[in-house]
Amino acid sequence: MTSTEGTTTSPQIEQWAAALARGEKVTFHRSRAKNLLLAVLMLPLALIPAAVALATTFPEAIISWLITLLLLGCAVVFGRRAMSRTPLAVVTEEGITSAKNTAAGPVPWGQITRVTTLASGASTFVAICITAQEKERRAEEAGPLDYEMEVGEPGQEEPAISLPHGLKADEDELVAWIERERLSRGAA
């Protein structure tokens, strides 16, 4: 895994900052267009193994029908994601809430030590490094967190949580903005 930290500003960052300054919550969702496109793409792909199933004998047909069902299931999942308006992450004056764990409430700004992007293979996601006290509080209130991780060089790791993958926002801009807000609100 590699780590990069954003420090640039953009119109999108300014828009998020202005909304937060007005006391509004800033929400981040999945990309509706991307998920709808994937759902539509799965439908014709499901026709290929269905056609193979109709043209083959019993043992081979079972595998083709299972693949067809899998692709149709993927279409349903992507379709539901496209229609869902539940935010994956919410940034407020109190802190940051991730849809991965809402039971412990937001991570307060004062408990965030830094924000970074992490790349693992082709995926990039936002990691919010938190204090040891915040990690303990979240574990007490919400139970063990299945998305907890340690970020940093070996021997210097810090506890962190990740925002959900697939946010409809540029990860580097999001990191730059959250880091800027963290510093202006009293960093840990």
Automatic annotation (TrEMBL):
Keyword Transmembrane helix attached? yes
Keyword Transmembrane helix part of the UniProt annotation: yes
Query: What are the TM regions of this chain, as residue ranges?
Result: 36-56, 62-79
Q: Which domain of life is it from?
A: Bacteria
UniProt keywords, alphabetically = Membrane, Transmembrane, Transmembrane helix
Q: What is this protein called?
A: PH domain-containing protein
